[in-house]
């Protein structure tokens, strides 16, 4: 009996432990640093200038406005590549007003006191011949309105009163001599209107008069594939501002023509307002226009695109008193990497699979085709499952996958670790009140589950969804999100109800959903438990079996609305909201353009006379909010920000070398030639490992692969894991977003395994694997063989990738008999009942004991 | 005057700059080209673009639909367009559909089949082997057949009856070449069904949708696929290029051809069908190289997939084209050289069908127009002899090797036979050997289902679908008489009309399990407690 009481006591203690949750909390997020932070570059640019706006008064005296001492810096200026983004910051400038929803190209024209930033051919060196100097005529703009003022009334001809302008530039028509004929530019010279042309001189010498859209260089076409890169950036009320400016080489913009031989500059013009001539008496309209000081207060927005005061607008950047305020940042372009010859007669060898490898494959393939002694490598991006099937069916020589796949054929398959990378939740979020971009997003598993499971109602259209009446409209209204990411706008947007994801089966989704299943709060939410703020999961997703490789679209709610368009296009609202796409690259591009793939727009198309559904508009600068699942390679290539994900409660880890290395250290290989599974449960325990870290494997058959192909695959694995792991942006090098696999350090096991698999693929006969053999011969000797769970998480966060610490490389003994994975089977009902019943039983026992002890006493009394 | 001299000097200097540029490792100079258009061919075009990046070529392609592609090209905002159909002159709505005076040429880039993908569940299983005749498809997309238990569908599937579930056709809302291909086929083959519905004859890029029907329209092939795959997609059917269902691992309809076989749009069946495509060979015609598909629709080969077609690139050929430069033309030429040759090798795996060499050769003639427009474009050695095209047969350039090696259709795919148990939508070329007409096990080549031939109900307790001679619970009669050709365990076309899985079952059994568990835990305790209570009573009486 006493033993019984002891057991009950123990049980109660266990229960208490479970419910109270005594897991120690580890506070603090890992700093969000990029996966590969480039070594501090010596190049860069800083310059300080004092800008003053001046008016010559009617009496001939000069009135000077308070000066602005502006400092402009740029982080890198040398050996640039096309589409590279340069970080430009400034301070001390006049605060801007009337912020446009989009500062790029002509959309940015209706702003006041912005900072115009553009790319120009030539450098600002008076000692150079004119052709090599930059001029307004060599500065790129994507539209006519940004460079020319066509048939303006006098009150819109402020430039004719510019104090610093040469006399010929103050004429009614100016800018080109001789002025284009009426035949060429019919709208240019119409008296009494004023016209100023700033022609564009292309690299090949062609001059485009820029008097209308037909007289602009071809790259300036309306609706060009690349949005404009030049912009009128916003200065915050404290006088500072920053942008990521995208440079274009002659490959992207032939007319501008910047390359390794043609020097170019980035020109930064803080608009301080035109300086004005002594006015006529009485003051002419142009004089008045020149002296205007703006109609928007600093920090205000102008999303309605109302007109602005021309004298302080970016449209007259070329006018002498603006132009003289320019900062010219000289930039140089690197040699383009050698490229494969399209006439190469060798047939390409196709590897099929993971998009995670895309950025690496782009840099790797020239390293193969440029060498006669190598084969021609090609990565065909396709879903992991399809890539695997192609490999087994012999359509592709090998597959690139990032998890273990079920074998359908009879040939054994070896997995060679080829790259360490992963995925992230990329985001593009602006802080409210034009305070710049948000850079520190944190998400946990439950928030991701809320997004994926379409549990936010999105808009009034989704509010009628059964069972979700009290759910927030979008993540920005979710108290859980707000608490985690304070200071963001809580104005709901439809796009805040979703994270742009993949429509195909993918190992990425498998891992992301596996991450969700390791979070108790998320699992409770999945099983229908309200979150602390009363939000519930979309009933259609309740108890969904996770993890899954293909996220299903389970909703079927079609809103009832008065809208004629929606009545004619009855469509599942939440599916249109989610609108997943086929590739992560599309997601990266949507994020880059801040153009959500939300397909809920319903309108009348006059050209066809039909109502139709379609994609919503691009987002406005200053109020961007978008989330998407991207590969770390794409995120690094396009400069997208990645959210930090929760590991231990309260601890948030962003993707970087350290957190990827910590994740790799958790990898466990079940048997020789098999993949290293990173268990999400271990990962949460470790705390410092990034949950989105993934190892990409080259998987190939170990038997019955034609020897010629086998040799190629073995070559590829050996090259990819040696020279392919050197960091850099050159041919054959490893781009950013990847953690190099090295012989030493945390990735040593991956390296060894890759070499073993390469040998086995080459040999094409699977050697008998002895369970007692270590996975490799040269590492992990001696200690640690019999301790499968080597603690690798000292609290001091060691730098695993440096590999100085041998204890960070636990060697894993291969399991003697790999067990087939067991399927977790569960039922909420039973899951909830079991503890309840045990508790009931325990209470029963206690009551029985109590009764047994007290009853005789009572009886005796009685 | 001075200005003029300066300009001259500047010009000379810039020329000198170009002239003294030492050749980088690749002799050719490329500039980025951009295009818009078809989503039908987008999946493979994007892969080609990724491939040629290694050659230093930058190509940007953004889809948006064929109509948008043709329009953008005519407005000089792109360097090329991709479209399923040529410029129509005037479109079906009276809008101008021309190149707006821009000189251009058509260039076939890839072939493929317009597939019908669907979600149809019997019990909780996805049907993966649905077969339909062209007539049934036309009637479905004109709202004449509105339920999956329609006798016409049953007849197409050799008597197998599907659940009484309304059919929801999903069409494209944007101007689409896929829609144009589909409606061209209906207009040719089933004018009596199509024309009364459309209200006129001919094709359309904008699918006409009638009020009060279940039809849904979505923008882009991706969204059509998402909608059908979605949970509420049960009963939906839509048209997309074959690559989309393959990517999504979703089934496609086997369509009846003139030879009486139901076939899937694999690369082989598409290639076979297109051997009967007439290509406009009149080089002076504005429509040079465009397709006339009448012969494809009625191709008598048992393997031919009727709704097969080519996709076209529209390239600018004018010498004074406002957007083109030597570098851009060179990029376009080399991009096409890659796509037409090596690029075709991956057409099959991606769900398309490679172009036969005669079309590749004609394509090279079109590429040559770029050199004609600009003599600086280098086309040396870019011809069929250096072409890594999988359909190539060195001796007979006009033959499509692929069509010759295409596997024969299965006997169970014939009208009045089957249906086959094999799954569709997984890009399985089928049994490579021809003449496999065995009646026993037709699951050959199907690597995705379990072991072949274990269709004898070995998976204990299997649903009625597994047993070919199941009893219809409604009628109590044996159904699905002809079952000789159905081996394999992948029979999803189920004769019974189970609407869906019954949630009641799981709930009831759940409660039962809970009750049992409760009993399991409590009964011993209660029993012991009861015993104990009796014992103290006895012992208590002793003193």
How would you explain this protein's 3D organization?
The complex is a heterodimer of chains A (862) and B (543). By secondary structure, chain A is an alpha+beta fold. Chain A has three domains: 45-77 and 80-143 and 223-331, no CATH class; 345-399 and 696-853, no CATH class; 423-651, Periplasmic binding protein-like II (D-Maltodextrin-Binding Protein, domain 2), CATH 3.40.190. In chain A, strands 16, 17, 18, 19, 23, 24 and 29 form a seven-stranded mixed β-sheet that branches. In chain A, strands 1-4-5-13 form a four-stranded antiparallel β-sheet, with no helix packed on it. A four-stranded antiparallel β-sheet of chain A has the order 12-6-14-15, with no helix packed on it. In chain A, a hairpin with a 5-residue loop joins strand 2 (54-56) and strand 3 (62-64). Chain B is of the alpha/beta class. Helix content of chain B is 33%, strand content 13%. Chain B has helices at 2-20, 42-52, 66-74, 134-140, 151-156, 177-189, 191-198, 220-229, 243-248, 267-274, 294-297, 326-340, 357-373, 401-405, 503-541; strands at 33-37, 59-64, 80-83, 89-90, 96-97, 104-119, 121-122, 125-126, 131-132, 168-172, 216-218, 236-241, 254-256, 262-263, 278-279, 291-292, 308-316. An eight-stranded mixed β-sheet of chain B has the order 2-1-3-17-6-12-10-11, sandwiched between helices. Chain B has a three-stranded mixed β-sheet with strand order 9-13-14. A two-stranded antiparallel sheet of chain B has the order 4-5. In chain B, helix 6 packs across helix 7 (191-198). Chain B starts with a helix and ends with a helix. The interface between A and B is large, with 113 and 101 residues.
């Amino acid at each position: 009996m006493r033993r019984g009481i002891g057991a009950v006591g123990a049980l109660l203690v266990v229960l208490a432990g479970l419910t109270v949750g005594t897991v120690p909390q580890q506070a603090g997020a890992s700093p969000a640093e990029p996966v590969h932070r480039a070594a501090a570059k010596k190049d860069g640019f800083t310059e300080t200038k004092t800008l003053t706006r001046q008016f010559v008064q009617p009496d001939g005296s000069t009135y000077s406005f308070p000066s602005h001492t502006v400092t402009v810096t740029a982080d890198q200026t040398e050996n640039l590549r096309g589409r590279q983004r340069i970080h430009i910051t400034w301070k001390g400038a006049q605060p801007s007003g009337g912020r446009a929803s989009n500062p790029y190209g002509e959309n940015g024209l209706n702003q006041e006191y912005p900072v115009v930033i553009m790319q120009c051919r030539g450098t600002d060196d008076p000692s150079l011949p004119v052709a090599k100097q930059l001029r307004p005529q060599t500065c790129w703009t994507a539209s006519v309105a940004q460079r020319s003022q066509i048939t303006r009334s006098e009150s819109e001809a402020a430039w004719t009163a510019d104090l610093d302008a040469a006399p010929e530039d103050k004429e009614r028509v100016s800018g080109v001599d001789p002025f284009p004929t009426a035949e060429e530019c019919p709208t240019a010279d119409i008296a009494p209107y004023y016209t100023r042309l700033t022609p564009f001189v292309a690299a090949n010498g062609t001059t485009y008069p820029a008097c209308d859209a037909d007289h602009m260089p071809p790259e300036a076409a309306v609706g060009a594939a690349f949005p404009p890169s030049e912009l009128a950036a916003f200065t915050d009320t404290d006088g500072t501002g920053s942008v990521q400016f995208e440079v274009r080489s002659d490959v992207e913009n032939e007319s501008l023509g910047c390359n390794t031989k043609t020097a170019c500059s980035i020109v930064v013009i803080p608009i301080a307002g035109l300086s004005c001539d002594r006015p006529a008496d009485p003051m002419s309209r142009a004089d008045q226009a020149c002296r205007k000081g703006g109609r928007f207060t600093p920090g205000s927005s102008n999303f309605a695109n109302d007109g602005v005061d021309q004298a302080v607008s970016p449209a007259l950047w070329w006018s002498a008193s603006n132009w003289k305020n320019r900062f010219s940042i000289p930039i140089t372009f690197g040699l383009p990497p050698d490229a494969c010859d399209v006439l190469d007669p060798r047939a390409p060898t196709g590897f099929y699979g993971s998009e995670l490898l895309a950025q690496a494959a782009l840099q790797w393939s020239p390293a193969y085709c440029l060498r006669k002694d190598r084969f021609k490598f090609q990565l065909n991006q396709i879903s992991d499952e399809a890539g695997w099937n192609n490999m087994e069916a012999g359509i592709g020589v090998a597959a690139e996958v990032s998890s273990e796949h079920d074998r359908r054929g009879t040939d054994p398959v070896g997995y060679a670790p080829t790259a360490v990378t992963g995925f992230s939740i990329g985001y593009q979020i602006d802080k409210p009140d034009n305070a710049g971009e948000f850079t520190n997003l944190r998400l946990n598993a439950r928030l991701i589950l809320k997004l994926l499971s379409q549990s936010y109602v999105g808009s009034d259209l989704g509010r009628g969804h059964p069972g979700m009446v009290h759910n927030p409209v979008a993540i920005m209204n979710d108290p859980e999100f707000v608490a985690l990411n304070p200071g963001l706008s809580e104005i709901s947007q439809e796009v805040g109800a979703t994270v742009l994801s993949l429509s195909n089966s993918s190992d990425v989704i498998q891992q992301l959903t596996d991450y969700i299943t390791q979070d108790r709060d998320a699992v409770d939410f999945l099983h229908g438990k309200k979150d602390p703020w009363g939000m519930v999961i979309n009933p259609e997703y309740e108890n969904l079996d996770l993890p899954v490789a293909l996220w299903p679209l389970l909703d079927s709610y079609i809103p009832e609305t008065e809208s004629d368009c929606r009545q004619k296009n009855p469509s599942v609202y939440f599916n249109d909201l989610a609108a997943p796409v086929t590739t992560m690259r599309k997601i990266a591009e949507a994020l880059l353009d801040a153009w959500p793939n939300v397909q809920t727009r319903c309108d009348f198309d006059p050209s066809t006379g039909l109502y139709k559904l379609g994609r919503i508009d691009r987002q406005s600068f200053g109020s961007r909010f978008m989330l998407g699942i991207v590969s770390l390679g794409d995120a690094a290539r396009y400069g997208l920000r990645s959210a930090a994900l929760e590991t231990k409660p309260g601890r948030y880890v962003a993707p970087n070398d350290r957190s990827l290395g910590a994740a790799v250290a958790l990898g466990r290989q079940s048997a020789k030639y098999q993949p290293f599974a990173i268990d999400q449960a271990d990962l949460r325990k470790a705390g410092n490992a990034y949950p989105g870290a993934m190892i990409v494997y080259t998987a190939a058959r170990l038997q019955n692969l034609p020897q010629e192909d086998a040799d190629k695959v073995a070559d590829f694995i050996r090259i990819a894991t040696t020279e392919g792991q050197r960091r850099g942006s050159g041919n054959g090098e490893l781009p950013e977003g990847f953690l190099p696999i090295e012989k030493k350090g945390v990735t040593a096991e991956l390296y060894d395994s890759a070499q073993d698999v390469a040998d086995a693929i080459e040999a094409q006969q699977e050697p008998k694997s002895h369970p007692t053999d270590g996975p490799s011969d040269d590492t992990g000797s001696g200690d640690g063989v019999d301790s499968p769970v080597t603690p690798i998480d000292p609290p001091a966060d060691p730098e695993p990738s440096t590999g100085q610490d041998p204890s960070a490389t636990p060697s894993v003994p291969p399991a003697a008999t790999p067990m087939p994975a067991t399927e977790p089977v569960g039922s909420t009902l039973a899951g909830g009942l079991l503890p309840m019943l045990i508790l009931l039983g325990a209470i029963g026992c206690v009551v029985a004991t109590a009764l047994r002890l007290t009853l005789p006493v009572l009886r005796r009394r009685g | 005057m001075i200005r003029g001299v300066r300009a001259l000097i500047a010009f000379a200097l810039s020329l000198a700059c170009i002239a003294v540029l030492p050749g980088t490792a690749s002799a050719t100079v490329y500039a980025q080209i951009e295009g818009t258009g078809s989503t039908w061919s987008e999946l493979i075009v994007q892969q080609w673009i990724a491939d040629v990046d290694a050659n230093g070529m930058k190509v940007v392609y953004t889809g948006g639909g064929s109509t948008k592609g043709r329009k953008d090209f005519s407005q000089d905002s792109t360097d090329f367009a991709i479209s399923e159909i040529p410029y129509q002159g005037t479109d079906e709505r009276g809008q101008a559909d021309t190149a707006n005076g821009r000189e251009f040429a058509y260039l076939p880039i890839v072939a493929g089949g317009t597939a019908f993908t669907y979600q149809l569940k019997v019990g909780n299983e996805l049907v993966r082997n649905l077969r339909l005749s062209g007539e049934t498809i036309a009637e479905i997309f004109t709202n004449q057949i509105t339920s999956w238990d329609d006798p016409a569908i049953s007849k197409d599937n050799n008597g197998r009856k599907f659940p009484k579930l309304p059919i929801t056709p999903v069409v494209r809302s944007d101007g689409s070449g896929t829609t144009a291909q589909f409606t061209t086929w209906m207009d040719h083959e089933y004018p009596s069904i199509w024309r009364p519905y459309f209200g006129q004859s001919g094709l359309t890029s904008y699918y006409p949708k009638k009020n009060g029907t279940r039809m849904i329209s979505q923008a882009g092939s991706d969204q059509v696929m998402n909608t059908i795959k979605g949970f509420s997609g049960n009963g939906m059917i839509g048209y997309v290029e074959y690559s989309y269902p393959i990517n999504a691992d979703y089934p496609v309809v086997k369509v009846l051809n003139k030879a009486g076989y139901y076939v899937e749009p694999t690369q082989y069946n598409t290639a076979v069908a297109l051997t009967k495509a007439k290509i406009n060979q009149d080089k002076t015609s504005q429509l040079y190289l465009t397709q006339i598909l009448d012969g494809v629709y009625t191709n008598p080969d048992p393997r031919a997939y009727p709704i097969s077609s080519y996709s076209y690139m529209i390239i600018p050929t004018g010498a004074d084209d406002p957007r083109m430069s030597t570098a851009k033309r060179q990029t376009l030429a080399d991009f096409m050289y890659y796509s037409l040759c090596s690029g075709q090798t991956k057409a099959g795996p991606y769900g398309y069908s490679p172009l036969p060499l005669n079309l590749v050769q004609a394509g090279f003639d079109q590429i040559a127009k770029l050199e004609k427009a600009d003599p600086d474009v280098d086309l040396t050695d870019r011809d069929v002899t250096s072409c890594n095209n999988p359909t190539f047969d060195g001796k007979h350039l006009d033959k499509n090797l692929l069509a010759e090696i295409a596997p024969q259709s299965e006997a169970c795919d014939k009208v009045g036979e089957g249906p086959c148990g094999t799954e569709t939508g997984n890009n399985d070329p089928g049994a490579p050997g021809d003449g496999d007409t065995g009646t026993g096990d037709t699951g050959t080549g199907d690597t995705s289902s379990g072991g072949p031939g274990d269709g004898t109900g070995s998976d204990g307790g299997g649903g009625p679908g597994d047993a070919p001679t199941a009893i219809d619970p409604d009628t109590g009669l044996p159904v699905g008489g002809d079952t000789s050709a159905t081996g394999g365990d992948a029979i999803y076309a189920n004769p019974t009309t189970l609407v869906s899985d019954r949630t009641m079952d799981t709930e009831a059994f759940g409660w039962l399990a809970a009750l049992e568990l409760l009993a399991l835990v409590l009964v011993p305790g209660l029993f012991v407690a009861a015993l104990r209570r009796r014992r103290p009573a006895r012992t208590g009486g002793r003193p």
